[in-house]
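Quick start: read one record
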Amino acid sequence: MKPKIRRFTLPDLAAGYPGDFVDDYIELLHFKDFAEPLAADGARLEECRFSSVQIQSLRNARLIQCELEQSGAPALAGAGVFLNDVRVEHSRFGSADFAEAELDGVVFENCKFGWLNLAGAMVRDVVFRNCQFEEIDLGGRIQRVAFEDSRTGLLTCTGAQLREVNVEGLDFAQVQGIEFLRGAQISSLQLGVLAEEMAGHLGIRLVN
């Protein structure tokens, strides 16, 4: 089953400023072209847009119907964040730590990640489209997630609970925790790449 992505359109937004983050509830603002990184730990943001800004920290924040474009951070601290109906486009993250986070109805498109950490996260109805990763840690509860035209050096699945996860569109160089791929949909070409590692895990000796 494909991810269920709910479409939304943001209304007209007022200009947002760094001082707005002293409030715990922020809505209907457009944050654009800030020189300093933003931190929104514990904040609730609804119907907001971030354009060309660095977002340093979103620990335990809640983003609902928000858009991020041409944004990112060298290291995004997002443990415990809740992303609901969020679009992230043309953005770059040295690392994005979403440990113990919840992502529901999120689209990442044309994004680059050094390391994406989803260990312990609950992730459902998420699409990664034309994204590049150095490493992905899928060690959470992952349901109805699809990768399209994407690539990663390392795919770590240790501890993952996968359900209806389509990795056919993910080109990977290496997989760790292959026994946790149960519940994933792969291509025949990917099966060939994984064959030797799967045989080793099962104790099967390959003879040329």
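The longest strand covers residues 62-69.
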